[in-house]
Design a protein that fits this description.
Layout: H1 2-22, H2 48-56, E1 60-67, E2 72-75, E3 80-82, E4 90-96, H3 101-117, E5 122-128, H4 133-143, E6 157-159, H5 164-168, E7 176-180, E8 185-191, H6 199-211
Parallel strand pairs: 4-5, 5-6
Antiparallel strand pairs: 1-8, 2-3, 2-6, 4-7, 7-8
Length: 216
């Protein structure tokens, strides 16, 4: 039984690596993408409007369901947090760094997105790849952004100083964002800076939350 579970885990991560390799783009600018034209993971009441919004924002949908690899990292309070702790919520998983100019430019937009959907089944998880944890913590606390405090139990600003989780998700540049449904499936990736506070972004996130609201 242990062998089969290990094999399954390796297979899932291998599938994720394969999909990400096919979806490579520029690191720090809005990528000019050619979105997937056929099936997407949004199998529950698929919406042409949602697909159109993905194209407008340059977000690439995966051709197949990919279980987002679980990970454990410490948050700003020193508490160990697991990705599975947020199961049942629609997740915007953003890999960033405080020294990254495009990440800093994106943060105010993430804040507006958080303000808009914080009372719904939605969470922004920010994974900071800064090697100097003390500087990262100081910056985050001084910035005043609350999108890293989405939960009463968990502070979702997570620290990845060794780059272990970033490597696990094949991050080649920041910011990089994964969209993960309430069942824990990664279904799309946005590589590079995005303005998440536009009307199109708000409508997209609302559509995705509604598409998955019955999943627990």
């Amino acid at each position: 039984m242990k062998i089969s579970k290990s094999f399954l885990s390796i297979s899932l991560i291998g599938m994720l690596v394969f999909v990400l390799t096919a979806c490579s783009n520029q690191k720090t600018k809005v990528p000019k993408t050619t979105p997937v034209k056929e099936t997407s993971m949004l199998s529950v009441n698929p919406s042409e409007n949602t697909d159109a919004l993905m194209r407008v924002m340059g977000i690439q949908q995966f051709k197949e369901k990919v279980v987002a690899p679980n990970f454990k990292l410490k948050n700003l309070n020193g508490k160990t947090v697991s990705l599975k702790d947020y199961r049942g919520k629609f997740i915007l998983l953003n890999f960033m760094a405080t020294w990254c100019m495009w990440c800093r430019k994106e943060m105010p937009h993430l804040q507006k997105l958080h303000d808009r959907f914080k009372d719904k089944d939605f969470v922004i998880i920010a994974v900071f790849s800064d090697r100097d944890k003390a500087k990262a913590v100081a910056f985050i606390k001084k910035s005043g952004y609350t999108f890293t405090e989405n939960s009463d139990t968990y502070n979702s600003a997570l620290l990845d100083p060794t780059g272990r989780v970033s490597s696990q998700y094949r991050i080649t540049g920041t910011p990089t964002t994964y969209l993960i449904d309430k069942s824990g499936n990664a279904f799309a990736i946005a590589q590079g800076y995005r303005d998440w506070s536009t009307k199109e972004a708000f409508t997209l996130i609302e559509n995705l939350i509604n598409l998955n609201k019955s999943i627990r």
